[in-house]
Amino acid sequence: MDERFSRTVRVIGEENMNKIQNSSVIVFGLGGVGGAAAESLVRAGIGRIGIVDKDVVDITNVNRQIIATDDTVGMKKTDALEKRLLSINPALKIDKYDLFYLPETADSVDLTKYDFIVDCIDNVTAKLELIVRAERVGIPIISSMGTGNKLHPEMLKIADINRTSVCPLARVMRRELKKRNISKLTVVYSEEEPVKTDSSVPGSMSFTPPVAGYLITSFVIRSICDIK
Question: What domains does the chain contain, in order, with CATH numbers?
Fold first, then answer.
């Protein structure tokens, strides 16, 4: 057993550690939520990870995105994250998809290669496309709802989308999924009312998006290991 995961084994045992190392997860969207989810999945020992994003690191990402530093500004997010993840576990297998996931690009990603899908996309059209395709091929998925303009990470929860409240994005997604005959979806969402701002661009903090990412990783790892 790789010594870097020895503390993990103490919590979940070698059998579950083997399950994790033999599992593959794909993360869509590498921003504040997705970057934290991807890194914590790798620190948990996932053997293979897919990372999907077309964006580049911007100086405005530094306040909340785990891959964003002065050194990575201007880099493709997939390149910046790949370098960071391999510095955590050089044996990690990484599939990079440098693309915006949309209906017209979705065929570029074979979801059936993965055991679990993590949706951290902030575009409704793209989220719906991914969720519908995950449902079609029977791959489990967890989806992040909105974390912008939020100050209380302790109000984040994991639930089925039909049990969500307050979150504007969850409200839209519930309605659109119903149109597509999808009745269930596990999500991370917040019951905090968003802070009102005078900008159409959501504000963000250093602590709320990554906590959502860590909750996602907790759910994925516990699901792989069948731990309640």
Answer: 3-225 (3.40.50.720)
Single-letter code of the amino acid located at 115: D
Q: How far is CA 137 from CA 112, 141, 169, in A?
A: 7, 11, 24
DSSP string, 197-220: -S-SSPP--SSHHHHHHHHHHHHH
Separation of alpha carbons 193 and 97, rounded Å: 34
The set of residues, in sequence order, having a beta carbon less than 8 Å from that of 172 and lying 6+ positions away, is 124
The C-alpha atoms of residue 112 and residue 1 are separated, in whole angstroms, by 28
How far apart (Å, rounded) are the C-alpha atoms in residues 29 and 6?
A: 30
Q: Check if the beta carbon of residue 189 is closer than 8 Å to that of residue 215.
A: no
Dig out the tokens for 156 from the structure.
């984040």
Give 93-145 pLDDT, tens digit per residue. 999 999 999 999 999 999 999 999 999 999 999 999 999 999 999 999 999 99
Phi first, then psi: what are they for 50, rounded to 5°? Answer: -100, 140
What are the Cα distances from residue 136, in Å, to 123, 130, 133, 214? 20, 10, 5, 27
Left if phi > 0, otherwise alpha if psi is -120 to 50, otherwise beta: which for 138? left
